[in-house]
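PT: before anyone asks, these are the final sequences, not the draft ones from last week. 149 residues across everything. Please model them as a single complex and drop the result in this thread when it's through.
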Amino acid sequence: MKLVIINGPNLNFLGTREPEVYGTQTLEEIESKIQEYAEKQGVSCSFFQSNSEGDLIDRIQQAHMDKADGIILNPAAYTHYSYAIHDAVKAVAVPTVEIHLSAIHARESFRKESVIAPACIGQISGFGATGYLLAVQALKESTNSGGRK
Ligand code: DQA
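LR: through. Structure below.
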């Protein structure tokens, strides 16, 4: 099974960015934690981070071209207004889990809405970096049980 883990704007600043909200682990540390967890389950992972909407869309499309089995996507602030990323997720029909480190529904009101979640098979938020591992598990089980859309 092949998964692509895509992180959006400002997540390259994890570790120093608002640690009281996002924790102290760097993106690199989170990625190696995911890698280690996934490997144990025979899942291979590719990682991508960008601050640009177009690059995120290109990587989502690439996941389709590469016949990835799933995408774990933290669209960061694009979550709340990028119809272009919503459309990309819909277009590729690769099962996608939206993930947030923080509990977006317990924060400012603009963060409560995700325009991307309706294109995803599910959303995980509020469990910090553990959320990425939960997403690996969720994709593994939903694709095994024929739970794909
Ligand atoms: C985030 C939540 C978003 O609202 C915010 O813009 C981010 C990070 C999270 O992982 O909690 O950049 O996606």
